[in-house]
Automatic annotation (TrEMBL):
The lineage of its organism: Eukaryota, Metazoa, Chordata, Craniata, Vertebrata. GO terms for cellular component: bounding membrane of organelle; cytoplasmic vesicle membrane; endomembrane system; proton-transporting V-type ATPase complex. Its main location: membrane. Residues 117-154 form the V-type proton ATPase subunit S1/VOA1 transmembrane domain. It is a single-pass membrane protein. Residues 1-102 form the V-type proton ATPase subunit S1 luminal domain. This is VAS1L protein.
Length: 198
């Protein structure tokens, strides 16, 4: 697949050539295409060659990637084929790159296989958060299962011993002097029998 740009500045007859192959894989039971090399030609000769890594898709699909580049910050899917040629002097970056070598119908790309990995940082963060929430849920279920019944607590409060304890606490309040003008009198308070004045 060749993209011909013609003369651009000092570059006479600039051409970007993609070398694609197709192969049949028994494991997936279908043909896959791969981009093996990218060549830069100008002045009617090959000036730079890059080996492509990881650019492949089923033959009925297209391949899409946000960046296909020779730069390390974009994962360097294009690697200079040799240290002896001029590939080291070139920095090649395709933005919003999409390619389909075979089975092109009506001039439109087929469904695209994206180059994004299955374990991108966002996906890994989602998995970690899911694991944390799962641990919190498991701890909450563990606490609910081992929750003790409150029946014994209510029985203790309803028992006579509880009221006897309350009665002991209030013994100091049963006898209380009444303030009057002349005589000293006491008021005996009992919750069961009412009030008695002496």
């Amino acid at each position: 697949l060749s993209l011909k740009f013609g003369d651009i500045g000092n570059l006479k007859g600039l051409v970007i050539r993609f070398l694609l192959t197709t192969s049949y894989y028994q494991l997936s039971v279908q043909n896959w295409f791969s981009l093996h090399r990218l060549q830069l030609l100008y002045n009617h000769s090959v000036q730079a060659t890059f080996n492509a890594t990881g650019i492949h898709a089923p033959a009925t699909y297209s391949f899409h990637c946000e960046h296909v580049s020779s730069l390390q910050r974009y994962d360097a899917l294009l690697v200079p084929s040799s240290a002896n040629d001029l590939s080291k002097l070139w920095e090649v970056t395709f933005i919003d790159f999409q390619i389909q070598g075979f089975n092109v119908q009506e001039g439109h790309f087929a469904y695209a296989k994206d180059c994004a990995s299955f374990f991108s940082p966002a996906i890994l963060m989602g998995l970690v958060m899911s694991l944390i929430l799962l641990l919190v849920l498991a701890y909450a279920l563990h606490m609910l299962i081992h929750l003790k019944s409150l029946d014994r607590h209510y029985e203790c409060k309803a028992s006579p011993a509880y009221f006897a304890q309350m009665k002991d606490n209030d013994m100091g309040d049963e006898k209380e002097p009444l303030r009057s003008s002349g005589n000293e009198s006491y008021e005996l308070r009992n919750q069961q029998f009412g009030k008695i004045y002496i």
